[in-house]
Amino acid sequence: MSRATLGWLALFVAGLAFPLMAGNDYHLTVMSTAYIYAIATIGLNLITGYTGQFNLAHAGFMAVGAYTVGILTVDHQVPFWVAFALSGFVTAALGAAVGAVSLRLKGHYFSIFTLCVGYIMFLVIEKWESLTHGTVGIIGIPGPSPIGPLVFDTPRALYYLVFFFLVLGIFVMRRIVNSLMGRSFMAIRNSDALAEALGIRLMRTKLLAFVLSVFYAGLAGGLYAGFVRFLGPGVAAVEHTFDMTMYMLVGGLGTLLGPLLGSISVPWITQYLQFLQEYRFLVFGPILVLLVIFVPHGIVGSWLGWRARRASQAAEPAAAAQRTTAPLKAVPSVSTGGQRHA
């Protein structure tokens, strides 16, 4: 068993044991919320960290998934699990339409376009009262319905439900990024021209990454709706996208563990700084600035870089010793036969 597999197994065991160590239900609520945003952040990391396209409408797509569950369950009495499944596919369908237009742009033009799309989503949610209930929001969203003997009516049961989807999301994402498709995403991140020279169809591959990314956001939004059971237009605010971006930067952009680590550690740091009230950001802000300056690749990215450099330094003496002890090969002499050519 590899070291990476052992590490993921240790995190899995820690997640299972967390409710036994949590002091109260509030801690379970904080961790469950962090897991939901971790799922969305893992999706954002696919399009931003692995494909190199910074989508600023990610919170808007998460809101689409949340409102899909809210509208279907409250206004149309659709069972929760049916609405939850549709939250991912409705968001993916909208993402395919938005991506087909926005991915024709590159760099900061793409980011600015998606920023505008995210704000349009926010305005639609806020103003379309007949569909989204406007600024009043959707109240009384039913929680996840029982699955056989499994009942999700306590904070601990909801915690394990969210934890299950987080583990499933990480497992699927790990398979994606380690596949040929994931290599195609990273090739596009490194260079569009090089990826195209390798035979990768740029538009189709970028669109696939975008749709998968927002699918994760939609499912995270559906879980959020069933967990919080109230929705307002603020769910679609661009500030949430910047929060998820911060999670990626702190943990490590373009890594699988980084977004998870950032999504869990940052909310807990802010919770422990609540005694400072509105002044807590005077402490938290400089910490983030120092991390960005001195750990630019994030915690996980910097650790992976350090491990690679250490392995390279350890391999250099062995390679040098092998070169010095290798027997010299005899160089065959070439005889001209002493003949001259006119």
Q: Residue ranges: pLDDT <50 for 5 or more in a row?
A: 334-342
* Biggest β-sheet strands, sense, barrel: 2 strands, antiparallel
SSE series: HHHHHHEHHHHEHHHH
Quaternary structure type = single chain
According to DSSP, the number of beta strands is 2
- In what range is the share of β-strand residues? under 5%
- What is the architecture at the second tier of CATH? Orthogonal Bundle
Binned, the helix content reads: over 70%
Which structural class do you get from the secondary structure elements?
A: mainly alpha
Whole-number tally of structural domains: 1
Largest sheet strand order:
1-2
Give the helix tally: 14
Mean pLDDT: 87
CATH class: Mainly Alpha
CA-atom Rg in angstroms = 25 Å
Using the coordinates shown, work out and report the CATH topology.
ABC transporter involved in vitamin B12 uptake, BtuC
Molecular shape? globular
What is the end-to-end distance? Answer: 71 Å
Explain how this protein is built.
This protein has a two-stranded antiparallel ribbon. The protein is built from 14 helices and two strands. It is globular, with a radius of gyration of 25 Å. It has helices spanning 3-21, 25-50, 58-75, 80-102, 108-127, 129-132, 155-177, 180-190, 192-197, 202-228, 238-251, 257-272, 280-294, 298-325; strands spanning 138-139, 230-231. Helix content is 73%, strand content 1%. Helix 2 packs across helix 12, helix 3 runs parallel beside helix 5 (108-127) and helix 3 (58-75) packs across helix 10 (202-228). The chain has 342 residues and is an all-alpha fold. The chain has a single domain (10-313), classed as ABC transporter involved in vitamin B12 uptake, BtuC (Orthogonal Bundle), CATH 1.10.3470. The longest helix is centred in the C-terminal third of the chain and has 28 residues, at 298-325.
